[in-house]
Structures are given as structure tokens and as C-alpha cells.
Amino acid sequence: MSRNLYRLTNEKEEEEEKEKEEGGGGGGGERGGGKLHFDVFLLNNNNNNINNNSSGDITRLYKNGIHREKLIVVLDDDDEENGGEGEKSKKNFFNKKRTKYYKYLFFFTGILAFVFGFLLGTMLPTILVKNGDKNINNNNNTSPYGKKNMMAAASAVTMMRENYKTYQSVSDVIEGALPSGYTENDVNEWRKFTRNTTVVQIKEGCGRMQNRLLKFSDGTISCCRYRRNTDQIQGELFSYYLGLTLGLRNLVPTTLGLVKMRDTKWSSVRSEMMYAQWVEDKPVVLTKFVPNLITAFIPFNFRNSNRRLHPTDVSYNTSQVTGDILDNLVELAQWSDMIIFDYLTANLDRVVNNLYNLQWNFAMMDAPTHNLRRTIHDKLLIFLDNESGLLHGYRLLDKYESYHSALLNSLCVFRKSTAEIIKNLWKNGNVGDILLNKFNENEPDFKDYLPSLPEKSIQILNERITKVYNIIEKCESLYSSHNNDNDNNNNNNNNNNNKPPDGG
Questions:
Q1: CB half-sphere exposure, 310, CA atoms < 13 A
Q2: Mean pLDDT by 10 residues, the chain (504 residues)
Q3: Model pTM?
Q4: How far apart (Å, rounded) are the C-alpha atoms in residues 435 and 344?
Q5: SS3 209
Q6: What residue spans define the domains of the chain?
Q7: Beta-carbon count within 10 A of 143 CB
Q8: Angle at 437 between CA 245 and CA 260, to 5 degrees
Q9: Beta-bridge partners for 3
Q10: Dist. CA 440–CA 452, nearest whole Å
């Protein structure tokens, strides 16, 4: 775009200047009064040449007799063509002056902001350091390890031990209120019964596709678990033996059976066995069917991420332990056993199932517990379906161990009998021998049909017993003064032993 430069001059002034140049010397007179004219110059941005094009009268630009000797006004071509006659050029001229003032304002504002920020950044650390020194020099009572907090911690330990003493007295009441459940005598009777009683009916039920409900000649019903993979048969049977070893009352009597279609015991249901696609000489697990079971829910102590069951959570006076409170404590005692049992076997199909499914369903911990039921009359918890234990669960520890550990680490309440058995198993390290002996004694006819527990599983089981043992020891040291009493007694005995004999 080209621009027009208008040069404005006073005609009288030009004449006087010419006379001076010619040596005329005259020159006075008032300035002004002459006629103004302007020269038009065309500025070409491409070659920067300036040409004299025209002149004209612009006295109309001056009002009230104001003369400006020399004025350069820049107009756009568009303004000239549209008849702006310089009005817009004057606005542009004064706008440019105003813009300069804004630039100066922004410049000084930037300097002010820099100075303020510099001072603030320099002084603030100094203030903080001074305050920090004051805090360090304050009395130790305000420190996290000050006298007041140390006294509070000591009081908390004393309170925990007092609560533990209360819990110990209450635990005797709870132990006496536990349901009788099932014992080894019950399983011995069940084994004899299944060996000598004829099966008269088979129908679908009891879980998986090839599982069946068996009806014996006297009307007794059994849940028969059939698996093509013997790992799950081993897991069910040896988990049951481990439960017996721990003294648990919550496992329904379980024994082995063998598929023999030509045997008189199975002869009346041969067609149903073929329909179920059972294979000859396959071992099956026969569990006594328990009717009228109801769903069991996860206690509130274990539902959220802060799950825990400690003596301080169940500290009641013995006079308070009645009715619903006693029922709740009895259930928690059984949950303590179940958490230990499921941790040792790495059972995937109970509470770990609920925990794992939390990632898809936030209400899983409020849902009924998988493979856990409760009897109506005595509120015994029944630990069902333990086939994933000891083998299949061990192979998946990398995936599920965090869930197993989360439950175990939440626990600091144990039945006395269970804790003592864990201590003995840890001390002797003979759990593998115990389980093998139970298998040989109870199922001598099945050695050729079902392998014993692999050595690798026994090794992992011993490692997990050690972990449970460490948890028990930690909780006892945290809550009881029993160890301190033993130390005092030992010191007294040592002092007595160091006394010289009479007359020495």
C-alpha cells in the first residue's frame, strides 16, 4: 500500500526566506496572514521514492487563526479516496501518542511487579527459617516425642493391656458359647456310612456341571464332587485334613468315594452316572449334605479398607456378653478361624472372591460371602467348597496374595486353641507328615487312585504357617503383658539359682 505525505507550509514565510537567500534583507512583519498551501508527496513502499505530485489549499484545516509552521500528516490511500479529507489521519496521529503512554505504563508496571516479587521471594524464606528455629527451641512438650505424648503413648499401651485382660476373660465366655460343630468322630461315622450304604438316586445339583446330589438308601443326601483334574480332589480332601488338624468345627464331614459302575453300591444309578459322563475308577469327594443353611455376610470389621479385628474392638465386660453381643462375638471368633484357614490353604473361593470383585462391584463386601453358610439353630458357620486350597490356590499366589495378606494382617484376635496349634506346627515343622498320616489312615484304599500332597505344596504351607505364627506373636507382644511377666519370673528363678547353697 502507498501512502500520501502532506507537507504544510506558510506562503509568507517562504517568500521571506527566498529574499534572505537573495540578499534582500527585509524581513520584518508579522508572521501569518499568508496563504497556506501544501505539497503532496507520494511515498511508494516498494522503491521508497518520493515524487512531488500536486498542491492545494488546506487553510480549512486551521481554525481560530492557529498557524502551524510545518506539519506532516500521514493518510492512507483509502481515506483519501473515501473523502476522509484528513480527519481520520488526525485521529490516527493522536492515537499513536496515546499508545506510547500505554507502553510506558506497561513498562513501569512490569518493573514494579519484578521488584515486588524479588523482595517477597527473598524475605519469605528468611521468615520461615526464623520461625523454624523458634519451633525447634520450643519446649519438648510440643514435639511429637515430647513428654506429654510419651505419657499418652504409655497410657495407650496400658489401656491396650487392660483391654486384653478384659478380652481374655471374655474369650472364655465366647469359647464356651461356640457351636459344637463337627469333630473327627463325625467324619469317622460318615466314612463308614458311605462305604456300606447303597446309592439309590443321583440328580443334578451341588454346584458345578458334573457334580451331583446322591441319595442313599436311608434317605441321607450327600454332595458328590466330581473333577477330571485330581488337583481339586486333592485340594478338597487335604484342606479338610488341615481343618481337622487346626481343630476347626466348621468343616462338614468329608471322605472319598470311587466311581464303580459295576459295584452293587452303584448298580441302581448306573444310567445316571453315564449321563453325568463319569469315568470309571475316578475318585470323588463325598460331603455330608446339610439342609436349611442360610447366607452369611461379612462382618462390619472387615468390610472397608480399614478392616481390623483387635482385642480393643471386642472389649466388653463379662456381664455385657449376652444376647446379640455374644452372638456377634461368637461369629467373629469363627471368622478368625476361617481367615487363618483360608490364608493357609490360599482359598480363592470365599472372602478373597469378594475382595477381588470389588474392582467391578463396589458393593461386593455387602453381598453374601461366597461359599460360606450358617446354620439356623446354633449359628455355626460352614466353610464350603475348599477345592482350590493347597494346590490351585498356591499356583495363583502372585495374583491373589495381596488379598490373602490383607485379611490376615487385619487380624489380632485368635482362639486360644487355634493359636496354640499354630505355634506347635511352626515349632515342629511337621504339618506335611500329619496330613500324609491322616490320608493313609483314613483312605488306605485310595493310594493308587489319588496322589498325596506334593512336596512343593507342603513347603508353601510351612511358609504360610510361619507368617501366621509371626502375626500371633506380634499381637501378643502388642496387647498382653504376659511376656513381661514371664521375663520377671525367669529373672527371679535365675537369681534363686545363683544363690550359694546353705552353709556355702
A1: 18
A2: 45 54 47 44 42 43 42 43 48 53 68 72 49 40 37 39 56 90 95 96 89 96 94 97 98 97 92 94 96 95 92 75 88 97 97 93 93 94 97 97 96 96 98 97 94 97 99 93 48 50 40
A3: 0.65
A4: 14
A5: coil
A6: 3-23+31-85, 158-190+232-251+290-481
A7: 14
A8: 105
A9: 43, 76
A10: 9
